[in-house]
Specification:
The structure holds two protein chains of two kinds.
Chain A (H helix, E strand, L loop, with lengths): L8 E6 L4 E7 L2 H16 L9 E8 L3 H19 L1 E11 L2 E10 L2 H4 L7 E2 L5 E4 L5 E8 L1
Antiparallel strand pairs in A: 1-2, 2-8, 3-5, 4-5, 6-8, 7-8
Chain B lengths: L6 E4 L2 E4 L9 E4 L2 H6 L2 H10 L5 E15 L1 E9 L6 E3 L10 E10 H4 L3 H11 L14 H10 L1 H6 L27 H7 L12 E10 L2 H7 L5 E8 L2 H18 L14 E3 L3 H35 L7 E6 L1 E10 L2 E10 L2 E2 L18 E4 L7 E6 L3 H5 L2 E2 L9 H7 L2 H10 L3 E3 L3 H6 L8 H10 L3 E14 L1
Parallel strand pairs in B: 3-4, 18-19
Antiparallel strand pairs in B: 1-2, 2-3, 4-5, 5-13, 6-10, 7-9, 7-11, 8-9, 8-19, 12-13, 14-17, 15-16, 16-19
Helix pairs in contact in B: 4-10, 5-10, 7-9, 9-10
Classes of the chains: A alpha+beta, B alpha+beta.
Chain lengths: 144, 476
């Protein structure tokens, strides 16, 4: 099966106390973009978020899993400090360096009705891997 | 979970004898039914904790134990620095010093009843709760330093609270040994506008009615009688604690090999207590404890303001303030010898018994109040520490009900708006920003807190004193 046929998408998976986030896509970069949408969906419906602000993010790590951990934690930090929610993302990864732009807006408590804030990404179920069909999966559990 | 994996020591004590890389046994305090229902992950995680260097006696899990990060939530473990013992960021958790504080109001239900709605509105207006809420205090560099070293005592100096509050807070309101220099600029940045905020998730402020008394003598000593109204606050160290946890978890995971620590799970990330990294974490984590104590102190002040707006001239005294995500240096007796040990309590409450030297005179005869928060809409409990818990679990008890169902399942099963109506029909007022948040915290998404507390009582971890029922819940 040609992995280009896979539509980039995200999903949540079960954890007893918290919540698992997962991105699945033809490329590593898109899987990172999708898992970040899954993270927004823990807080609010991403469709309710507009993309009026752009934030640049850069991180570097020795392997893809640590890079994913850093990526999610950078976003958690930006969301917390600047009171933002993100709708979508553009990610580039070269030689363990991630450069990205996150597009979103300030939290509007009435409009977004945020359910819960994210404390941080964890090592639990932290995995980045390529499936037999060539598609990439990026996942972890976030503590809420 | 398969109960045949355990040796049953008594009605509530289930042991996994040391095997493989385990340095000590693992012990779960629970009954046959709850053990059967417990997640198999608790077995994996508690036996993993038992492999860590310098662990003393056993790795313990409380009756409310469930799948956590590295440590199970409801996990207790003691480490000896003289035997290569470690400190683990995962063993404390992201929400450093998350805890519960309970206030007396001096009101009874009859006095509260006509003012319930007004009080609910006033509390919701006064205490910042939920995602995107900001406190009214803005910390600069100096006030941040003062807060991180002074905890609730710093808050008191700023005018939040009363002198007599301090003896009714663990560590008398100030955790010694905090080293703000190990708290990163990012952790500070996350906190500077978050003082005096509840946060979200399972955090709350609840007005409660004393519904039942189990021990009249201790209840009287704690100032509790049936139909009294109390207020409980459940929250932690907010963004600062989360950021400290995030940063040290990663650093400890990456440094494990350097310290020749074999991690069965990266989330168990730890460092020797005597190593530079271990000491840095202890200094930062203690600053995080102070942040939580200051936060609950400021919320107490806001609560007093809100209640006084409805009941002029009222005085709200503190029953006690407990933390349930900590690592603390304590004296414990091992084989007849006093040892200084670092006790990790991850989702577990300290439960010092009568006569413990660290308790203020007011609790010397009763043992410390052990405050167990329920889920939204269900009972909470006040227990007291026992002498035997020293030998059972390094003086530790459970901390809450523990989730029985994931958030996604809960949102599929319940609608927030309907839950609020159902609870209102039972006389419980819910105030929340997010109806989805309400659904995620549905009462039935949690285990039965009463069953958990009964076991803690039967196991001798702490003794039941009073049951509290919710009247108003300001959900974080």
């Amino acid at each position: 099966m040609n992995n280009k046929a896979i539509t980039p998408h995200w999903e949540h998976f079960e954890h007893a106390a918290d919540i698992g986030i997962r991105g699945i896509a033809p490329t590593l970069e898109q899987a990172f973009e999708q898992i970040a949408v899954a993270m927004t969906a823990v807080v609010t419906n991403p469709d309710q978020v507009s993309a009026s602000k752009a934030v640049s993010i850069r991180c570097e790590a020795t392997d893809n899993e640590l890079l994913l951990l850093d990526w999610i934690n950078e976003l958690v930090y930006e969301m917390a400090v600047h009171g933002l929610l993100f709708k979508h993302y553009q990610v580039a990864i070269h030689d363990g360096i991630l450069s990205a732009t996150a597009f979103g807006e300030a939290v509007d408590r009435q409009k977004h009705q945020p359910a819960v804030e994210i404390k941080g990404a964890t090592f639990t179920e932290l995995r980045v891997y390529q499936q037999a069909d060539g598609s990439w999966v990026a996942q972890c559990i976030v503590d809420v | 979970m398969d109960t045949s994996q355990f040796v049953q020591r008594d009605e509530t004590c289930w042991e996994i004898p040391a095997k493989g890389n385990m340095r000590v046994p693992a012990i779960i305090y629970t009954d046959a039914q709850l053990l059967q229902d417990m997640d198999q992950k608790v077995y994996e995680q508690i036996t993993n904790v038992a492999t860590l260097p310098g662990i003393v006696e056993a790795a313990y899990a409380m009756p409310d134990a469930h799948w956590g990060y590295g440590f199970p939530i409801g996990g207790v473990a003691a480490f000896d620095p003289e035997q290569g013992g470690v400190v683990s960021a995962g063993g404390v958790g992201f929400d450093i010093s998350c805890g519960v504080r309970t206030l007396h109001t001096g009101l009874n239900m009859a006095e509260l009843q006509p003012h319930k709605q007004v009080l609910a509105d006033e509390l919701y207006r006064t205490v910042p709760a939920g995602v995107g809420s900001r406190g009214r205090i803005h910390l600069n560099h100096d006030s941040m330093h003062g807060m991180l070293t002074g905890g609730a005592q710093w808050a008191l100096e700023q005018g939040y609270g009363e002198d007599q509050d301090m003896e009714r807070i663990e560590e008398h309101g100030c955790m010694a040994g905090a080293e703000p220099k190990y708290v990163s600029s990012r952790a500070r940045e996350r906190q500077k506008d978050e003082m005096g905020t509840l946060g979200s998730g399972n955090h709350y402020l609840e007005v409660q009615r004393v519904a039942e008394i189990f021990d009249q003598t201790v209840a009287r000593s704690f100032g509790l009688q049936v139909d009294d109204v109390v207020i409980s606050i459940h929250c932690g160290s907010r963004g600062l604690g989360h950021q400290i946890g995030t940063e040290f978890l990663k650093e400890m995971a990456m440094s494990a090999a350097q310290y020749q620590i074999v991690l069965p799970d990266r989330e168990l990330a730890c460092a020797p207590l005597t190593s530079p990294l271990g000491k840095q974490y202890l200094g930062a984590m203690r600053a995080g404890i102070n942040c939580a104590l200051a936060n609950r102190q400021i919320i107490t002040h806001l609560t007093r303001q809100a209640v006084a707006a409805v009941f002029p001239g009222i005085h709200l005294g503190l029953l006690y303030d407990v933390s349930h995500n900590t690592c603390k240096l304590e004296q414990h007796t091992i084989d007849g010898r006093k040892k200084a040990l670092y006790i990790h309590r991850k989702g577990a409450t300290r439960a010092f018994g009568p006569g413990h030297p660290d308790l203020p005179p007011v609790f010397k005869e009763t043992g410390q109040p052990v405050l167990i928060g329920g889920s939204m809409g269900t009972s909470s409990y006040v227990l007291c520490g026992t002498r035997e818990s020293e030998q059972r679990s390094f003086s530790s008890a459970c901390h809450g009900a523990g989730r029985a169902m994931s958030r996604s399942k809960a949102t599929k099963q319940w609608q927030g708006g309907k839950l609020v109506e159902e609870l209102a029909a039972q006389g419980i007022i819910i105030r929340s920003l997010s109806m989805r948040g309400v659904a995620e915290e549905a009462p039935l998404a949690y285990k039965d807190v009463s069953a958990v507390v009964d076991i803690a009582d039967r196991a001798g971890l702490a003794r039941k004193v009073a049951r509290l029922e919710p009247v108003i819940c300001i959900k974080g």
